[in-house]
Amino acid sequence: MPTDRRPDFVPAGFRGHGVDVAIRIDSKSLRHAGISVYKTSTGVMLIGDEVPVEHIEWVQFLPLGLTIFKRIPYWRRAKIPKDLDTIRCHNSLSHWRLG
What is the DSSP code (8-state) at residue 39? Predict the structure, then answer.
């Protein structure tokens, strides 16, 4: 994925099948949402249902460790106005409607 340092960089094979990623799940928020989480004796989390994106903390592309998704922290999300319905791109100055 593009980064601040290399905006033109996309790892080889990123758009294909068999791409290895590491996904960090927020198990506390899963439990609060009533989604069952099971932990094996080896420490692997098993989840019987799909996980909504709000319970994913981050996704990294392996083996480089390149972060391709990171959830906004709660303290920062709390600063977003509740009635926000549009955003503006700082590069193109375009307005985008949310939802």
Answer: E
**Single-letter amino acid code for the residue at 45:** M
Please give the pLDDT value at position 18.
64
Assess if residue 32 is contained within a domain: yes
Spatial separation of the C-alpha atoms in residues 39 and 28, rounded to whole Å: 13
Kindly report the backbone phi and psi dihedral angles of residue 96, in degrees, each rounded to the nearest multiple of 5, phi listed first. Answer: -125, 135
Q: What pLDDT does residue 2 have?
A: 46
Is 82 contained in some domain?
A: no
Count the domains in the chain.
1
Task: Tell which residue, 98, 91, 97, 99, has the closest CA to residue 4.
Answer: 91
Amino acid 12: pLDDT = 60
pTM, two decimal places? 0.53
Is the peptide bond prior to 2 cis by the omega test (within 30 degrees of 0)? no
Nearest-angstrom CA–CA distance, 99 and 86: 9
pLDDT-flagged residues of the chain (< 70): 1-19, 64, 99
